[in-house]
Design brief:
Layout: H1 3-15, H2 21-31, H3 39-61, H4 69-91, H5 107-137, H6 144-176, H7 180-200
Helix pairs in contact: 1-6, 2-4, 2-6, 2-7, 3-5, 3-6, 4-5, 4-7
Length: about 200
């Protein structure tokens, strides 16, 4: 296989992997408030997260920033906790019900808040991705192709996970008849519980 294909697969399976459950749980919390018809909002949200983690993944892999891996391992659960708490607060508003579009009230600042948080949390998760990539690269100092293909692989895996989460929500809400607010409460509550275990573990 070519270098591009090799690192593309490594990036894809680094996130599309049950061992990467911290990142999977974050994506669950990130997408929980949305359903398939909100796909434009989800694209913007995932793009915001991508901007953040792509930046720090590149900077850390190229040795342009230094960080404590232990600190990042602590901060990743914190990003999940904050995202889940934001979802639970949103679920308490009457605006989010099964027959209504997701969170369309509150003004531009409230609508932009999840995207701003996604960028900031992406910065943290990007450092988490870089720890694995730097182990793979060893002493290479200018791994531009490897960095690019690994990042593309991560994005492909991330998009597949987001698609599965939206499909699961759609199936439960439209197929089974689960109330949209209940789906948000249960998924966010589960993410919050897992993150608390990670934080204190």
């Amino acid at each position: 296989m070519s270098v591009f294909t090799t690192y593309l697969q490594l990036g894809f399976f680094h996130i599309f992997n049950l061992q990467a459950y911290d990142h999977l749980v974050f994506l669950l919390a990130l997408c929980a408030p949305y359903v398939l018809r909100d796909w434009r909002r989800v694209v913007l949200l995932v793009t915001s997260f991508t901007v953040g983690h792509s930046l720090t993944l590149a900077l850390a892999t190229l040795d342009l920033v230094n960080y404590s891996p232990q600190l990042i391992e602590t901060l990743i659960p914190v990003t999940i906790i904050l995202t889940a708490l934001l979802n639970l607060a949103r679920a308490g508003r009457a605006a989010l019900r099964r027959t209504e579009p997701a969170a369309t009230t509150g003004g531009p600042l409230v609508l932009a808040l999840p995207n701003l948080l996604a960028v900031g949390f992406g910065l943290i998760h990007g450092l988490g991705f870089s720890s694995y990539l730097r182990e793979l690269l060893g002493q290479q100092r200018r791994p531009v192709l490897e960095l690019f293909s690994f990042n593309v692989g991560v994005e492909l895996g991330q998009l597949l996970i987001v698609g599965l989460i939206l499909a699961l929500g759609y199936g439960l809400i439209r197929g089974v008849g689960v109330d949209r607010r209940d789906w948000l409460l249960v998924s966010s509550g589960a993410a919050l519980g897992i993150a608390l275990v990670l934080l204190v573990g």
